Automatic annotation (TrEMBL):
Domain of life according to the entry: Bacteria
Protein known as: DUF951 domain-containing protein
Pfam families per UniProt: DUF951
InterPro entries registered for this protein in UniProt: DUF951
Record organism: Tenuibacillus multivorans
PANTHER family: DUF951 DOMAIN-CONTAINING PROTEIN, HYPOTHETICAL CYTOSOLIC PROTEIN
Length: 64
């Protein structure tokens, strides 16, 4: 868990793409749960942090 450092506004790639076909997500809220927003259709999903850590593939773009 400590090897993957992500923060709010980072764009990440998950293991499975969204049904719209895009696999880029922006982290919009962090806490016990993490809210990510699909960069293709703007659908947002709330995922528990533990599940997010398991499904995260890589960080595509760090926030400025």
């Amino acid at each position: 868990m400590a090897d993957k450092k992500y923060d709010i506004n980072d764009v990440v790639e998950m293991k499975k793409p969204h049904p719209c076909g895009v696999n880029e997500w922006k982290i919009v809220r962090m806490g016990m749960d993490i809210r990510i927003k699909c960069q293709g259709c703007n659908h947002s999903v709330l995922i528990p942090r533990k599940k997010f850590d398991k499904k995260l593939k890589k960080i595509i773009k760090k926030a400025e």
